[in-house]
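input
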Amino acid sequence: MNLRRRTTALLSVAGLTSSLLLTAPQSASAANLIENPGFETAGTGDMPYCWEKSGWGDNDFSFTTTADAHTGSKAMKVELTRRVEGDRKALITESADCAPVVTPGKQYDLGLWYKTTTPDAAITLFRHDPTAGWQYWTDLKTLDLAGDWTEATVRTPEVPAGTDRISWGVSVYGTGSATTDDYTMDQVPDPVLPPECTGTAEQCANGKWDVLPTRNPVRSMHSVVLHNGKVLLIAGSGNDESMFEAGTFTSAVYDPANGSYKVIPTPKDMFCAGHVQLQDGRVLVMSGNKGYPTADGRVGYQGYKDSYVFDPETETYSKTNDMNDGHWYPSATILGNGDVISFGGLREDSTGSVTAELFSEAEQQWQPLWKVNQTWSYWGLYPSMILMQDGRLFYSGSHVFGNNIPGTGSAIYDYGANTTTQVPGLRNKDERDQSASVLLPPAQDQKVLTLGGGNIDSNPEANRLTDIIDLKQPNPSYVAGPPIPQGTVDLGNGPVPQTGNQGKMYVSAVLLPDGKVLETGGALHNRANPVYETSIFDPASETFDPVAVDPEARGYHSSAFLLPDGRVMTTGDNPGNGTWNHDVSVYSPPYLFKGPRPQITSVIDTEWNYGDTQRITVDRPVAKAQLIRPAAVTHSSDPNQRFVDLPLSVEGDNVDLNVTSNPNLAPPGWYMLFAVDANGVPSVAKWVHLQGPQALKATDASAHVHDFADAPKGKAEGPGKQRVSQKVGPTVSGCDRHYGSINVCVPTDFPSEVKKTAAARCEWLKENDYGRLKVNGKDDPLGLDRDRDGIACGKGDVKRG
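output
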């Protein structure tokens, strides 16, 4: 943590705490909440009453009370004449006498008049927590250059829980000056009208699921929401060896506007590839399936080096250059400069890839090995690598298949320094296989939720665990969150209530435009025993609210994702018996039954730059707005999913939105823009394209990133010894290939309640609709062919026990 900032904060907290013992905070009033808003009252030192100096870093600066005022006789000028790093800011004094009292859940309109000679000035907020003290909250608005007095107004997000006061002012983080005067702060009035329920009482409380009349024509396990509102559904061979042998690889484009599907020619088996939207909205698809395991299980899945780009305009694939290595089940994370970084997966020889790959946005190709920093670490399959606000990557611990990485199971990777630091606190780290991780709303809060999971290898009952980490803390660590609510589970004879600690793996987590998270789908065991449970997680209260349940099983190879109209679509389910669920479900959350939706009637400009103020018009009052990055999801994993708050200023039907200046918070690309009213009802999304101005390409975009995760206690480890690959067993997918066809998954380890006898195992297989299974080769490791007739679980096998 920045020591200068920490010292200031600790002194202020000490003063504030002693004052609070004498004076309880009073409710905010409708009047201006700023003490000495025009700097007219002198203080005891060289700063006006209720104002203090703050800032950090290597820079030369001055604070001047100047006579060049907007009104009255005084204004405040903050100037940087030399800057290497850091900023300087004049803030409201962090004390009980000066810092305005605020109410959690409320919003406040802030205003000031200013002149600037630098584009690097912003309105910055800090919040006080009675337990944790003063801490950075958010940057609300970048100030445009202004030679004459100019008014700036902005509305805060909802005040977080546990906040009793805030301090704010203008920070200068580039050479030049900002002169400010006449500060205002008013609480936003509560909405007058409560929401009107437009559905049944059940729908208004819990939402509604619909199973669509038209089925998905392909066995899609990859879902990408395109910037034209359509959905790319990628199947490849669809985990069907006969399709692979025939060279029949499929994708489809679904159009929510009319419910139609268009099957797309697909050049390669993109079954279990990686994918991410590029800055221009095209979809980068990396690797996929070069070969299925051999029938005797001696050789596992193989990943090819090929890579393709899907163009939403032409709805066609085109080939890029090859990756350096094969990557079946790779990660894919877009960075703040538009590059894509990828880790993990299986190579062409079925071993684990230890090669990091980098796709250059500028060159539109994968970089040669010598240009990419390497740790030679094996991150596993589909490791969830989430971009942090300073450009580092947070490996959340969510992954696919078997055990987690060695150590704590969670880490921060710094690509520039090429170091990895373990992060503590993730519970049951080797049972987070097929868990879900999501950067909670808003992205500015830098909190990650990880939920559920199991273990394909040992096949225990999936868990209910959730863990939350605050990456703004100097030494971040996961802490326990609330357990996932329980629903029903089908153990082979119809759904029954879950008991004990039964949870689910194959979890889907979807960011909603009201700032909450929908979690849905899952199963209790490896490709078996679907769990029917759906709930909504509220990041503000850290609680789950059980809602209506998807009537379809959604286990392995299922996806859930947000549509631009605010609904959530779910697809797929691929049990171990090799079948596929082609039914598609759509969930309408409760907010769609709370009366008329606000409408964004115009977007003045759909091309946005970082630090912009962008204007939209709406048909009625809205309380907040945000950007949500469209989904690119598979196997419970979408590390690029994020919800970016847009602080707003309101003048009639005109709403000015303040875009973050940090590309690491909102990597370049297309976003869904939602406006939300005070009752949490969202508009239908408008599409906007966010990319960086030239200034951010030439300078470090993280220069204005505040303290967080900068002092983890774990040891930062550099690259290991260069090596070719990581040895990975051919049963990595948890399937014993000695039985049945290649797309049938007989578990290598049956659930613990199944006795280790042929009769018990065959009964379990029968209950899960496996049917008769051919024995591949002469080996029978599970003892299912006791009469040695080449058919597992025949009559003679069951009789023998």
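quick obs: The chain has four domains: 51-188, 201-592, 600-695, 731-800.
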